[in-house]
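Hey, I was hoping to borrow your eyes for a little while. No rush at all, and the record is pasted right below:
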Amino acid sequence: MALLERVATLLRANLNDMIDRAEDPLKMMNQVILDMENQLLQVKTQVAIAVADHHLLERKKQENLARESDWMRKAEMSLERGDEDLARAAIERALPCREMAASFSEQVEDQRVQVETLKATLQKLDAKLAEARTQAELLKAQARRARAANRAADVQITQLKGLGRAKEKIDLELALGQAKTELLIGDGVDEKFAAMEKQDRVEKLLAELKSKKQTVQPKLNAAPDVTPQPVRTNT
């Protein structure tokens, strides 16, 4: 039966391997579940038909057994009345009923096996479908966790970017402040050196003035020479 072959293929499927190989596992599982649900519906229909056929064959079997029993009863009644020909005729009518009952009995047994096979397949497919649905729910949960993790990562990245921009701004402000400070410090140093050089010139000029003053002062304070000069006479 083509249906049972298709179902057998689904039952043999390794869902974990299918998930590992699938590019989109959740989409693949949803398709598998859809296929299983479709096959499950068909198997249920076949089970119902098989059970109905089994009841029909059983009824046909019982009807032929009842006809056989009725003709054999008539054969016995004919023998009791001493009419062997009529008894023989009744037996001839009973034999086909017996053969038909035996044939239906075989069909009933075959149909019983078919019903049991379909019911077992239905149970296995139902269990496989439950497994597939569980796998799909797990995949959905994983997808939700992945989306939540991605959102959290995006938030963290945004925050880190914001912190990075803030840090860059702070670093820039610090650099500017340091540059300004260095400029101010540099200007002060130049001024200090200039003041020192000016002071040195002032001190040097002052020292020169002092030196000149010390040289002139002794000359001003020196006494005049009053030693008497000898008188020269003309000879």
Q: What stands out?
A: The mean pLDDT is 81.
